[in-house]
Structure formats: C-alpha cells, structure tokens
Write a structure and sequence with these properties.
This protein is mainly α. Strand 2 and strand 3 form a beta hairpin.
C-alpha cells in the first residue's frame, strides 16, 4: 500500500490547524506568526510549517511581507463589504443553478441539514454546545443549498467566501439574535429555495448574507470608535504629564 510522505501529512495538518485558529480568532487579527511559537503550539516541524504558511498565503488566509515573515490578516469594514457583496453575487447565482438542476437528493439534504442546524442553534444558545458545533452545521446547511449547482469552481468559490465571512462572525461572537430569530431566518431561506422560485430565492440569500454583514459592520465601527476614544484619552494624559517649559527672562 502506498503511503504519503510524512512531510506532506504534517503540512496538511498544519494548514488545517492554522486555518481553524485564524478563523476562530485563536490567532488574533494582524498578529505575527512566529515560526518558533507555531512549532511549539502545533508540534509540527519548521519545514512543513513553512509549506503550510506559503500555501495559506497563496489562498489569502495569511499575509506574507518581504523580510517580515507571515501575519494573520487584519479585519476591516472595507474587506467585510467586499466579501459580502461578492458572496451575495456568487451565491445567488449558485442557488439559481442549483434550482435549475434540482434533484430529490438535493432537497432531502437541505431539509436534513436545516433540522440538524435548528437543533444546533437551540443547543448553542442554551450553552449546551460550543460554537464549533454550530459552525459545522451552519456550514453544512449553506453547502446544501448550492450542492446541486453543476459548476464545481463556483461552489468552491462560494465556500471560500463563506469561510472568510465566518472569520468576522466568529471574531465578534454572538450579536443578539434569539434562537427563534436565527432559526426563522434560515427557515425562510430554506423555504424560498425549496419552492424553486429563482427570483425569491436569489433575493432571500442576498438579504440573508447582508443582514449579518450589517450587524458585524456596526460592531466593527463601534470598536473603531472606542479605540479612537481610548487613544485620544491616553494621548491627552501623556500631554498633561509633560512638564511645562520655563521661559528665561
């Protein structure tokens, strides 16, 4: 039996672990990814770790700067808007194509994934399950919606955009919706798609993606304002501590 080289397996493990920690916020936005710390954190050697970082840099999950190594990408309202609008366009088209190529298996997976998601929302809101439990099932539901789309590259593109958006959602935690509201929002989306009404389904997915983006953007703006206020206050204190210059006569 043929086996993959150990370095390849280690690189794949490093990619998976790094991506997971970047998406969850365990590796903070705009933080430097130091090789010594990464090796210790994940128990993976330098060579496969460098390969993993290079791969993630090519995918846009980390930033590489000349002579400065690798960093976790920062978060910004501008990037959030870019991801959101692109995802609204791409996922609406993928849903259109999925409806046009609908099958019974496609419908069954949408219904099954919704019910699994519904239970996950209730359990997570009640504190019985962690955020990863919800995220896995939420991702499954959105994948199910477009699984009948015949364009593999479009599905992959939608999945990449979903992951990038998830990073923002997870970094900011919950945003005040009740379990009933979250379930209702996804039920409306499921019903629109299963009705095979292309126009309504496209509009519903655009609205669904836009709602969370609006909430996240508002939180980011609030954090930016709080940061500016804190820096202004700190600078004012520094200024007040400086001794006044005596003038000679």
């Amino acid at each position: 039996m043929l086996t993959r080289p150990e370095s390849t397996t280690a690189t794949e493990a490093a990619v998976r672990k790094l991506k997971q920690d970047i998406m969850s916020g365990a590796l903070a936005p705009d933080s430097q990814l130091k090789m010594r710390e990464l090796k210790s954190r994940y128990g993976i050697g330098a060579s496969p770790m460098r390969e993993a970082l290079a791969q993630l840099a090519a995918e846009g999950f980390v930033h590489q700067r000349a002579q400065k190594g690798f960093r976790v990408p920062p978060v910004s309202i501008e990037e959030l808007i870019d991801i959101t609008k692109t995802r609204q366009f791409a996922e609406a088209e993928a849903i259109k194509l999925a409806i046009e190529n609908a099958t019974q298996l496609w419908e069954e997976e949408i219904v099954a994934s919704f019910h699994v998601l519904e239970r996950a929302i209730i359990a997570t809101k009640a504190g019985e399950k962690d955020r990863d439990h919800f995220e896995d099932r939420h991702h499954r539901f959105h994948r199910a919606l477009i699984s009948a789309c015949p364009l593999n590259s479009l599905r992959d593109f939608c999945d990449d955009l979903y992951v990038r958006k998830t990073r923002y959602r997870r970094l900011l935690g919950g945003y005040g919706f009740t379990a009933k509201e979250v379930i209702g929002e996804h039920r409306v989306l499921m019903d629109a798609v299963l009705a095979r009404n292309v126009s309504r389904a496209r509009q519903t997915i655009r609205s669904h993606i836009g709602i969370t983006a609006d909430v996240i953007a508002e939180v980011l703006r609030s954090k930016d304002q709080a940061k500016v206020a804190s820096e202004t206050k700190r600078n004012a204190k520094k200024t007040s501590r400086k001794p006044s210059k005596k003038t000679s006569r």
